[in-house]
Amino acid sequence: MIFLIDNGHGGIVDGKPVTPGKRSPFDHMGQLIEGESVRKIARLVHKMGTFIGHKVVMLVPEDDDISLDERIKRIEQYAGREAVMISIHHDAFTNDKANGVSAWTTKSDNDSDKLAEMFYQEFEKMMIPEGLAIRTDRGDGDSDFEAGFKIIKGAENANIPAVLLELGFMTHEKNYEYIQSNRGKEMFTKLILNVMQRVADGKLSTTEPRKGLPMFSGEYKTKPKSNGKSKSKK
After folding, report:
1. Could you tell me if residue 165 is inside a domain?
2. How does pLDDT run across 113-166, given as a tens digit for each residue?
3. Listed residue (152, 153, 155, 181) closest to 166, CA to CA
4. Does residue 224 lie in a domain region?
5. The domain spanning residue 74 has which CATH number?
6. What is the 8-class DSSP label of residue 29?
7. How many angstroms separate the CA atoms of 187 and 149, rounded?
8. Could you list the residue range(s) of the whole structural domain that residue 55 is in?
9. DSSP string, 6-18
10. Does a structural domain hold residue 222?
11. How many domains does the chain have?
């Protein structure tokens, strides 16, 4: 099994972000540049996944903002082989209350939905105890959101299951702080590695999207773990 890891947007070149926008409104832990942050996660996934024996390919090892067409060409090189594609992003919204993690596929009914379901299972186990909410879309009965993201369509056209992850909101202060923290990066990496291991173990074919998970709401989370001090997390 080959794991294609896509880090969204561009990173930092010559000390400057190469993708307009795509950054946090907060900077008390350093401004969060989406392309830079997801590259850190992707590189950790590549390093740790390779270390434990997986075949992991970074689609965009460059810091430049590689076009979607070029990314899809790179994906197409693996058509006909056992592979999945995971695209890593952070979310943003004009309403600073929006928060949490989510997974996106296309409107097609295929193995991408099963891959997304694996991520939702890991979200429940790993993100809720960290104080991050889970965002779900119940419009078609399963958990994941669906849109016409070009990179997912490109992978599916090559018969490669694909999912786009939105790992927290840059525009939500508590999410921003978690994303910027070492723990946040480590937990996101571990979550992705957990799913990769399940796929490698052949669980993709036996995973079915669940029915009946609640729509996203503020109560669909648990209290953060206590460290002796009371802290409110949204």
Report:
1. yes
2. 999 999 999 999 999 899 999 998 866 667 888 888 999 999 999 999 999 999
3. 152
4. no
5. 3.40.630.40
6. T
7. 25
8. 2-10+33-206
9. EE-S--EETTEES
10. no
11. 1
